Amino acid sequence: MRIVFKTSYDADIRLFKHNAQAFWYLLLFAFAILLPFLVSDFLIGEATLVLIWAICGMGLMLLVGQTGQASLGHAAFMAVGAYSNVIYQLNFNMPFLLSFPLAGLTAGVAGALVALPTTRLHGIYLAIATLAISVLTEDIIIILEPITGGIAGIFAPDIEIFGYTFNRYGNPVELYWLVLAITFIVIYAYRNILRSPTGRAFAAVRDSEVSAKAMGVNVARTKMVAFAISCTITGLGGALMGHFATVFTNETFNLIISITLLLIIVVGGLGTIHGAFFGSIVFVMLPLMISLTRDAVGSLTGSGSITIPGLESGIFGAILIGFILFEPMGLYGRWLKIRTYFELFPFYRKDMFRRQKSYLKTERTR
Amino acid sequence: MSLLELSNVTLRFGGLVAVNDVSFNVEEGEVFALVGPNGAGKSTIFNMISRFYTPAEGDILFEGKSILEKEAHEIPSMGIARTFQNIELFEQASVLQNLLVGRHTHRRSNFVADMVFTPFVRSEERAHREAVEHVIDFLDLQPYREKFIAGLPYGVRKVVEMGRALAIKPKLLLLDEPASGLSVEETQDVAFWIEDIKKVMGITVLMVEHDMHLVGAVSDRVMALADGRMLAIGSPQEVQNDPAVIEAYLGSDGMTDDGEAA
Fold first, then answer.
1. CA-to-CA distance for A278 and A284, rounded, in angstroms?
2. How many domains does chain B fold into?
3. Domain interval for residue B62
4. Which residues form the ABC transporter domain (chain B) (predicted)?
């Protein structure tokens, strides 16, 4: 176990705890940048998808993991991001460099507006309200057919930056790097939030609203800010997803996607940036694994390829239930346990990560 | 002008009158204790001062201004900090982070600057940290700085909560049963700290406490309540010897012949 000797307050403000940690993360970033030289174009496409899901997941993570507000409607904000990005480009002739951040902002403003009435709700009621938003968005897309293309969908043009085009099929590697750069920016902003007063206000609202108020945190405003930032990030992810999918309809960002996002952050590990990445890796790789297994089983039994309808959703559901039952801290939590085991070897105790029983809570004053 | 003035404050929960026409003043620089049996309305008074409840009648003045038009989250920036009877810390955060939340009222940055982490945010963070370190030194919390609340013993949590309130740098500190659930030694520590909070930091203290030894040791004035009404107010000795207070705690003198309470 590493002991860090802190000689200034900056030691707790800096992004990395110590130089060794900085080294490993920079190595990971270097690996991510050099990945296209190591694997095939198909896998680069999958990696791009992982990054896009991770961006969307980070958006939801900020809301659920950091601020403790449930949302079953985040696909709606992906849709806002995706549609507004393409509409800004097609109808207003904006370049990607302008339409992309604007799309994020649009989703953020939409999120803040949704937060105005819904953040008065708690727990399951908030979840149901956001669920309604998700369902409503699908209908709104159909109603706004003249600009959204309705059921027929909308075609996303190639991303173009200073005359250089990025296309999923034409140059997947460049698209991957672009998405990777955006991912870095989002991670950096997320980390900054965590180490600043905004992040602490989020945690305060998550752990005890009564106490947050008593510390001078404006709970309603903090929730609105959390919704706004969360939806901005998810909207940016949605905009990228729109370009990646090249064509999307009202059904692209449906309720299943909302639940998928929730699955990603729960399986990955709530409240951590790592969780969003672990979760999206599982989510993207799983269909691949299922189809590989299916082929293997098919060739083994000689019955050819078997298709079982609903198999994917079933396996996803089972994984989610398994994680909630056996590893509520998600994959990242499991990784932390394994790491601690080796760091403290042989002094690791089984109950080290057990959630402590919390003491009696003050009665709610509302 | 008193620091805090409650005048004819009444609060009802449906048919129950939790606080009935209570008036008292807390003067600057004193330690004022509220005592009384369970359900007397002590914590309810706290919750009215921190604006979780709104009194049906009466007014609450802080530094001469009514606080009733303020929202709960605006109270700390006026200079009123509080702790909770049953500890309301941010469980999934470290002691340091909990104390830093106490600095929230002194925050000058906004969320956009926070996201970019401008040099201004960084220098603010250093200033907050320095203020928090003073509190940590004051309460001897150094060994727990990086520890998560979820793993801390009850006594330490109590101290952390007091520290979080002190990080606000309030003029008035409301302590809701600072010694409940503490051992004898820990209670003695609390007594020393309350003395120091008053003398060294110059913070006025209003506290609810059941431990009469602690109340007697640290408080300048005491008010006794029962069933939402004021029974007596004065020095700890005066209140303890007041017949109405003795009756509220021990029952009336009307014993039956065989010595059992009537």
1. 10
2. 1
3. 1-79+208-256
4. 4-252
In chain A, the domains with their CATH numbers are: 29-283 (1.10.3470)
Q: Which H, E and C letters describe B58-120, residue by residue?
A: EEEEECCEECCCCCHHHHHHHCEEECCCCCCCCCCCEHHHHHHHHHHHHCCCCHHHHHHCCHH
Interface of A with B (CB under 8 A): 9-10, 12-13, 189, 192-193, 195-201, 203-204, 206-208, 210-219, 225, 229, 271, 355-356, 358-362, 365-366
Angle at which helices A96-118 and A219-245 pack, to 10 degrees?
Answer: 140
Query: Are A12 and B116 within 8 A, CB to CB?
Result: no
List the single residue in B92, B128, B164 with the smallest CB-CB distance to A215: B164
Closest in B109, B126, B133 to A197, CB measured: B109
Would you say how long chain A is, in residues?
366
Residue B118 covered by a domain: no
Which strands sit side by side in the sheet containing B204-208, from one edge to the other?
B80-82, B172-176, B204-208, B31-35, B221-226, B229-234
Residue B56 lies in a domain: yes
Q: 3-class DSSP state for residue A10?
A: helix
Q: What is residue A340's predicted lDDT score, i.e. its pLDDT?
A: 86
- Asked if ipTM goes beyond 0.95, one says no
Strand partners, B172: B80, B204
- What's B53's domain CATH number? 3.40.50.300
Mean pLDDT per segment of 10 residues, for chain B of length 262 residues? 92 91 94 91 93 94 94 94 90 92 93 94 94 95 91 90 95 93 92 94 94 92 92 92 85 55 43
- For residue A165, the 8-state DSSP code is E
Does position A94 have pLDDT exceeding 80, yes or no? yes
Nearest CA among A144, A154, A44 for reference residue A89: A154
Peptide bond into A346 cis (omega under 30): yes
Question: What is residue A64's DSSP assignment?
Answer: I
- pLDDT band of residue A355 (cuts 50, 70, 90) is low
What pLDDT, on a 0 to 100 scale, did the predictor assign at position A303? 67
Strand partners of residue A118: none
Q: How many CB pairs under 8 A join A and B?
A: 134
Structural domain includes residue B164: no
Residue B198, in any domain of the structure: no
A155-213 tens-digit pLDDT: 999 998 888 889 888 899 999 999 999 999 999 999 999 999 999 999 999 989 999 99
Task: Identify the pLDDT of residue B222.
Answer: 95
Helix axes A172-194, A19-34, angle to 10 degrees: 160
